[in-house]
């Protein structure tokens, strides 16, 4: 069975340092025989302000972080899923894009997804993060694509709270869904594992969730607990410590076929039907 590597670490505003950590993950994953490495949301950087983010954000064609990852992926013949920031295409330089890219074993970017659901939270006594002020939301889903671990559907962090997007990718043929994330500590403690297991159960798919962990700056701390959940809703791999870490999981696609055969989910009502006034 193909082996997937799932990482967690603490991004800062020092891109060269973040790159070195991710390159080390690539070497570790390749040395263990993994066919793909999954890195967290915002692996290139986590800033302390909107202004700093706009300064750090670079196009993929010139970003030393992305170019460094691509080269390392090529050297190790390893596929890499990674969350990064990209400039918007409007030229205003007022917001960035939160994207997930897929780098193939030749170091080429072959897939890209722009985060649809933007994270706004203002928890009493907890974090206040208004991503909508600095991030342009995406408008479309990237169709699932073939990989050695199955047909992959790309999602990001806050998308986890919206089951309709995971169900849409499932209907398009996805067997593995990714949620690279930077969950806050309060929301992570309350909902992270529960939501990941729910998405696995309702889509009958593998869920791979790389994660940011620890204190990024004085304003931001992430929950961690990168994990893999199987199509039956069981956590099969997890980074438990609050530190830089990597875990591995064998992705059994025969299990997907078995679960979907044994518990067929044949939906009988669409959303318009649910809200119809007809008797």
Automatic annotation (TrEMBL):
Q: Where is the CN hydrolase domain?
A: 1-253
CDD domains assigned to the protein according to its UniProt record, in alphabetical order: nit (cd07572)
What this protein is called in its record is (Perigord truffle) hypothetical protein
Q: What is the superkingdom listed in this entry's lineage? A: Eukaryota
Keyword annotations from UniProtKB, A to Z = Hydrolase
Select a single GO molecular function from the record's annotations and give it. deaminated glutathione amidase activity
Write down the InterPro entries for this protein, in alphabetical order: C-N_Hydrolase, C-N_Hydrolase_sf, Nit1/2_C-N_Hydrolase
UniProt GO BP: amide catabolic process
**Which positions carry the signal peptide feature in this UniProt record?**
none
């Amino acid at each position: 069975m193909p082996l997937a590597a799932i990482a967690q670490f603490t991004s800062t505003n020092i891109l060269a340092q973040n790159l070195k950590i991710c390159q080390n993950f690539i070497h570790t994953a390749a040395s263990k025989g993994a066919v793909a490495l999954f890195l967290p949301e915002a692996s290139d950087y986590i800033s302390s302000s909107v202004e700093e983010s706009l300064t750090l954000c670079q196009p993929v064609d010139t970003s030393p972080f992305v170019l460094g990852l691509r080269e390392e992926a090529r050297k190790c013949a390893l596929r890499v899923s990674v969350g990064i920031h990209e400039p918007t295409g409007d030229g205003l330089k007022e917001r960035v894009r939160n994207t997930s890219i897929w780098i193939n074993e030749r170091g080429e970017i072959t897939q890209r997804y722009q985060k649809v659901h933007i994270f706004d939270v203002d928890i009493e006594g907890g974090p206040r993060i208004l991503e909508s002020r600095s991030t342009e939301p995406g408008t479309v889903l990237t169709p699932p694509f073939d990989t050695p671990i199955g047909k992959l559907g790309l999602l990001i962090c806050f998308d986890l709270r919206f089951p309709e997007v995971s169900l849409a990718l499932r209907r398009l043929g996805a067997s593995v869904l990714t949620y690279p994330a930077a969950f806050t500590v309060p929301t992570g403690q309350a909902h992270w594992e529960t939501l990941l297991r729910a998405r696995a159960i309702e889509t009958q798919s593998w869920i791979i969730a790389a994660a940011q962990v620890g204190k990024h700056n004085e304003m931001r701390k992430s929950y961690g607990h990168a994990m893999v959940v199987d199509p039956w809703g069981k956590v099969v791999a997890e980074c438990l410590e609050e530190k830089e870490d990597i875990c591995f999981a064998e992705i059994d696609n025969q299990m997907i076929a078995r679960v979907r055969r044994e518990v067929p989910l044949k939906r009988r009502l669409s959303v318009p039907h649910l809200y119809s006034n007809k008797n």
